[in-house]
Amino acid sequence: QVQLVESGGGVVQPGGSLRLSCEASGFSFENANMRWFRQAPGKGPEWVSTITSGSSFATYLNSVKGRFTISRDDAKNTIYLQMTNLKPGDTGLYYCSKDSAGVTRGQGTQVTVSS
Predict the structure, then answer these.
(1) Strand 92-97 relative to strand 34-39: parallel, antiparallel, unpaired?
(2) Count of CB atoms situated within 10 Å of the CB of 34
(3) 60 - beta bridge partners?
(4) How far is 72 from 54, CA to CA, in rounded Å?
(5) Which of 12, 47, 80, 103 is the most exposed place for a label (fewest CB within 10 A)?
(6) Nearest to 36 by CA among 115, 106, 87
(7) Helix, strand and coil percent figures for the chain, each rounded to 5
(8) Which element (helix H / strand E) includes 92?
(9) How many alpha carbons fall within 13 Å on the CB side of residue 60?
(10) pLDDT of the chain, 115 residues: tens digit per residue
(11) Do 84 and 66 form a contact (C-beta atoms < 8 A)?
C-alpha cells in the first residue's frame, strides 16, 4: 500500500523559508520519479517540481525557479522541498506524489505566507 506523508509546513512572512518533507513507503522509491504539487485556496492543483530517480534531473514551475530546490534521500525514502524567498502567492496545501497527475498523494502540509 502506497503511503506518502508530508510535513514541514507552517506560517511564514514574505521572504521567509521552509523545508517540506515527504516520507514514502509501499513502493520502490529509489526507482520512482517524485513530484511536489500545491493547491491554493479556491484553485486547482498546480505542479511545482519533479525529481527523477537517482536525482539526475530536477524541473520546476517557472514561478518558483531559483527559489525552490527539490532533493531526495533514497536511504530515508524521503523527498524534500527547500523553499526560500517565499511570496504570498506560494500559499497553499503542498503534497507529494509518485505519479505525474498527482493522483496518488499524501494528505499535504499547509504553507501560509503572510505578513
Answers:
(1) antiparallel
(2) 22
(3) 49
(4) 9
(5) 103
(6) 106
(7) 15, 50, 40
(8) strand 92-97
(9) 13
(10) 999 999 999 999 999 999 999 999 999 999 999 999 999 989 999 999 999 998 779 999 999 999 999 999 999 999 999 999 999 999 999 999 999 888 899 999 999 999 9
(11) no
